[in-house]
Specification:
The complex is a heterodimer of chains A (293) and B (908).
Chain A (H helix, E strand, L loop, with lengths): L4 E3 L4 H10 L4 E4 L5 H9 L7 E4 L9 E3 L5 E4 L4 H5 L2 H6 L1 H8 L4 H4 L4 H6 L8 H6 L3 E5 L4 E5 L4 E3 L2 E2 L6 E7 L7 E7 L10 E7 L7 E5 L6 E2 L13 H15 L10 H19 L11
Parallel strand pairs in A: 1-3, 2-3
Antiparallel strand pairs in A: 4-5, 5-10, 6-7, 6-10, 8-9, 11-12, 12-13, 13-14
Helix pairs in contact in A: 9-10
Chain B lengths: L1 E8 L2 E8 L4 H8 L18 E4 L2 E4 L12 E3 L12 H8 L9 H14 L5 H8 L10 H11 L27 H5 L15 E7 L5 E7 L1 H4 L4 E6 L21 E2 L5 E7 L2 H9 L2 E6 L6 H5 L28 E9 L2 H6 L3 E9 L11 E6 L5 E5 L4 H12 L6 E5 L15 H10 L5 E4 L2 H6 L6 E10 L5 E13 L5 H10 L10 E9 L13 H19 L3 H8 L20 H11 L14 E4 L2 E12 L8 E8 L5 E5 L8 H13 L6 E3 L3 E2 L14 H28 L6 E4 L2 E4 L2 E7 L7 E2 L5 E2 L4 E7 L20 E12 L4 E12 L6 H21 L29 E7 L18
Parallel strand pairs in B: 1-5, 6-17, 15-16, 19-20, 24-25, 34-35
Antiparallel strand pairs in B: 1-2, 3-4, 3-5, 6-10, 7-9, 7-11, 8-10, 12-20, 13-18, 14-15, 14-17, 16-26, 18-19, 21-22, 22-33, 23-24, 23-32, 27-28, 28-29, 30-31, 33-34
Helix pairs in contact in B: 2-5, 3-4, 4-5, 18-19
Classes of the chains: A alpha+beta (293), B alpha+beta (908).
Amino acid sequence: MSDLRYEKPASVAEAVRLLAAEPGRAAALAGGTDLMVAMRAGRATGQCPELLVDLKGITELERITWTEDGTLRIGACVRIQDLAGDARIQQTFPALAEAAGNIGSLQVRHRATVGGNLGNASPCADTAPPLLVLAARLVVAGDRQSREIPLDQFFQGVKQVALTPGEIIIEVVVPPAPAGLRTGFGKVKRIRGHDLALVNAAAAWVPGSAEVKLALGSVAPTPMLVPGLDNAGAGNPSATELGERLAAAALAATAPIDDVRASAEYRRDMIAMLCRRLAATLLDVPASQTGGR
Amino acid sequence: MKRQVTFTVNGATWTREVDMDQTLRQLLKDDLYLNSIKEGCGIGECGACTVLLDGRPVNSCLVLAVEVDGCDVRTAEGEVQDGLVSDLQQAFSDFGAIQCGFCTPGMVMSARALLDRNPGPSREEIVEALAGNLCRCTGYEPLIEAVLAVATGKIAGQSDARDTVTPPYVGKPVPRVDGVAKVTGAAPYVHDLTRPGMLHGRFLMSPHAAAKIVRVDTTKALAMPGVRAVLTGADLPYKVGLYLQDKDILAADVLRYQGEAVAAVAAETEAQAAAACAAIEIEYEPLKPLLDLDEALADDARAVHENLADYSWMEGVFFPQPGTNVAHHQKIRKGDVVQGFAEADVITEHEFWNPPVQHVPMETHTAIAEARLDGEVLIDTSAQSPYAVRNLFCHTFDLPHNRVRVRVPYVGGGFGGKAGIHLEPLVYCLSRAAGGRPVKIVCTREEEFNTIPSRQGLRSRIKTGVTKNGRITALEIEYLWDAGAYADYGVNIGRAAAYSGAGPYVVPNCKIDSRVIYTNKVFGTAYRGFGHLEVLWGIERNLDLVARELGLDPYELRQRNLLRLGETTITGEPFTKGHGRPDLCLQKAAEGIGWVDPVANPGGNTEDLGNGRFRGKGLAMLHKAPAMPTFTSCSTVIKFNEDASVSLLISGVDYGQGTYTTLTQIAADELRIPLEKVRVVWDCDTDMTPYDWQTVASRFAVMGGNAVIKAAADCRRQIKAVAAEALNVSADELVCRNSRVFVDEQPENGLDYTQVVLGYTFPNGNAIGGPVVGHGRYIARGLTHLDPETGQGKPALNWTYGAHGVEVEVDTATGEVVVVKTVSAFDAGKVLNEQQCRCQVIGGVIQGLGSALSEKFIFAPDGRFLNPSFQDYKIPTAKDIPTEMEQHFIETPHPEGPYGARGWRSTR
């Protein structure tokens, strides 16, 4: 028999109280698609949480809502598949829907949540790059207060995030899409079926404006926004020019590593390839180079 | 801690006390006994445990039981209504969308989830819905077709497609006899079995690729709760092996690969066994691992097996070299290569490499053993060859064969990986140490990758002499097999690869040295193709390069050199009419992909799709001859029942390839009875079903088919003998038709089988005859050992020839290779069941594409295996198959085959 305990609170307040009471021993359970795998691996070595606080069923965490100004608010426990299949998200922020649709298998997407995908802080989390380029913020709730954390300040290292013990993600807030916004997502995998990203990337831009947003995953300890693109969109660049600007900034900002999934050299090539492809997507021209699967 | 949960499963409400860390998979399987629930990986990568949770398809291994309070769960069992399977289940069965069946229930549920939400899905939507369920047998295409058939209303409900097939059955697309058992989840695999009093075994894997064991302390583990036995290598002074007894059951003094089992525990629960394993203290002295073939062959190389000279092996067939790392050296010498190269206009040298890959059966290796106190041994195992397991087992433990009983129920995929002996000795030793209680080990997917053997790596160096007009004058080839730590089947693969090592070509002067080299990697074993696939990569790629160097059409180069009547193979076997038509196979494949002569029409086979993407075509030949002892044999018994139905007993295993369906067709035709009157008894049991050598090497349809034909003839002879006496006619005048025996051309003057098969009773009550039990046997004939110095001889029962043509798209920006179309052509001798033949080809092609494109073992410099899970060892999914796959069959009868058929299921 296991020593593990399980609680299914009915409210956010109760959830954070339970989590805050046992810092380091309690873990929030959402879709469980990462946590269950980690627990299976950790069981032999005794590295398992002692208390699971199940966040599913807290109504306010399971809603996708749009405020009047066009702000998108995604509850932390919204299933990835529901995010991927949301018609308005597909239309307004196609990169986000596409990224969500690229996570794991259908079975995993039906279980996994957006809060879990971000909170797990994997360098290859597929929803992170689009949410980074969309300047998303996280609403987090703690024992005493709620606060907002800009997503680009949330990831602090592999499996390390800016949550204090007991805090949980409540909501992902995506600011309204400016008129003319274009977004793109790309992912390089080893097979066409479900796979972790060797490199993933997202970009957002309003053609005609100066600043281009670009974010990458699997190329650093955390998903990251690429700096130095404040003027990348200036001067009516062609897709090729824009692609080269994005690639140059991306390669300057990243130092990918060799691992079992890909070599650093391949990752660098794929960063540049994805940048070229994203530039074509942003400018709505046929890709000069295809990439990703 | 436990908690009470209430939920519904397939419409029934359950209230259960569940452990907090219990998964939904465990709840459904272990508490509710839902047999359809399988486990393929435990980490949500394979989909074998898919159920519908509130209508959504989920991996039940990633859901906690406590989470389902108030939820609705649906499983494949719930598809069955009033004893009838659902439309989806029927379609899976009818379309051959099933082979081993282990992934099938999960696949059915994924399809159900799709159709519930979208009754008219497109092919693309079906692919998306099924892509989370890994299948290693079917190649997915038949599954997609089955779901499409339901979506388009072609299959609306339960129907028995078998009813529509009329005799003769051989040659007809009879649906699988095991279809319903598998779609409903009713079929029991060892994975599903438990026994009263059963303990759970786990083993500890070596963290090092090479190390000496300095100290072992099991004190803590022995004192842990629930522990009933702890074993280490020092407790087990046995050697196991197929052809060369080189392996410890648990590593005793030296560890030879990372993942090798070093200690094992039997405990009341799996968790207790795992915890006790983790508590075993072992101190290692790491050695520098031998990971490279050249290093392993260096004069001063450390011998992976220091005591090789003391081992026993099959002498005269295998030639290990003590003091070195050479486990076997097979030579082929034909003609004079010096002369051959002198006659050549062009001489080329090329090197090729195949990495080790794994079989990845969806059911991992598992076995239950009971060492009874009276000395009897009972083993249930997920194995391909029950008699081989028993024989090797008895050899290792010096036990009489008739005291050891090996049973094999349904098997969730094998592909050669379950051909030999694997977990059985260890679970037996654990049971013995635990006082005779049965012990079960189920490998986790990680253990399957790390501990269970794989396909060997191969380095091929090929020197080719060829005339300007493309006639091969000489081949000199070095095959170096990276056998890993133990010989297992590896030495025989080295042998098979040598006798088939020049490809299906006329090579007048041939010198092949195939050496099997010990290294500190996971060891190799039989894997679909048994050495042929590996050498053919080098041989066929080499021919493309030679053609390029000669400026010849690679198609034409192949056609000019293919084996033909009047020529001999490299082992001196005359190529006869019965060998088949490799030339037609190549022609079919080339036609199918629209191959044109690239010399006359440069660029005719390629296309620039723009943006760095290109399309191209390729051709390859294949041949295969089953590697088997010269005396390989098979037997079968057919028993008549009261209703004149028959039970067919045979010990070859149908682990998905469909042989039992084929044998059912043959038996029905040969006994002149309807298909449904034949039942191949599913569990193989060495106490019950008669001897069969091994279910390997594509030989079961041929040998089993022949045995069934003979057993049926024996039955007919017995039936006629009784009928002759009853009817007072000569047996020669009698014929058997439509479940009756009668005087030829006088159907009314005869008896129904039901009046004869248990004995005939005269009107006055006198009885004659008795139960009809037919026996048939078959032994390979005319095979010879290969000459140790020249390799000359007749190595195999039959050769099978085939060819593949493919069209691929390459994205030069990403390196992505997408196979768009495949065309496969085989000379099958006789197509016994076209649906099955087609499905075998599709499954084989997709498995081959996995080997070629996405699968390989990756080792760290210290020999650790870096990708032992589905997360990083990527097998093809439903999204990874070509959009178009064609299959063609040529039927040149093989004189030894049943109806002329030859074995070819493991060719690809």
